[in-house]
Amino acid sequence: MALDDLGAGHTSLSYLTELRPDIVKLDRALISGLHENDRRVPLVSALIGYAHDLGIRVVAEGIETQGELSLMMTLGADYAQGYFLGRPAPEVAGLLPQAARFWGPS
């Protein structure tokens, strides 16, 4: 199970302890334009640390620059997604046949 948009206004930290998801995705608003002197860095670092303390892996959403990716790696994010890493594709590629049948025209 994954919890999306952690750090967005409607997401509560209590969901982490109550739901115990496998993965939590940090909201892109926390990551967008993030740099080492940004006032959000301690918050992002604390969220990653808290998730890890609970055994939850962390995805940083909205990575659009090498700097954001490097900083998120330094802060300990387990995974990253965003335009810097790859654009959405018109077709799903690289899936095993048993999974690919669920993606595509019916």
Automatic annotation (TrEMBL):
<dbReference type="InterPro" id="IPR001633">
    <property type="entry name" value="EAL_dom"/>
</dbReference>
<dbReference type="InterPro" id="IPR035919">
    <property type="entry name" value="EAL_sf"/>
</dbReference>
<dbReference type="Pfam" id="PF00563">
    <property type="entry name" value="EAL"/>
</dbReference>
<protein>
    <submittedName>
        <fullName>Diguanylate cyclase/phosphodiesterase (GGDEF &amp; EAL domains) with PAS/PAC sensor(S)</fullName>
    </submittedName>
</protein>
<dbReference type="GO" id="GO:0071111">
    <property type="term" value="F:cyclic-guanylate-specific phosphodiesterase activity"/>
</dbReference>
<dbReference type="InterPro" id="IPR050706">
    <property type="entry name" value="Cyclic-di-GMP_PDE-like"/>
</dbReference>
<feature type="domain" description="EAL">
    <location>
        <begin position="1"/>
        <end position="102"/>
    </location>
</feature>
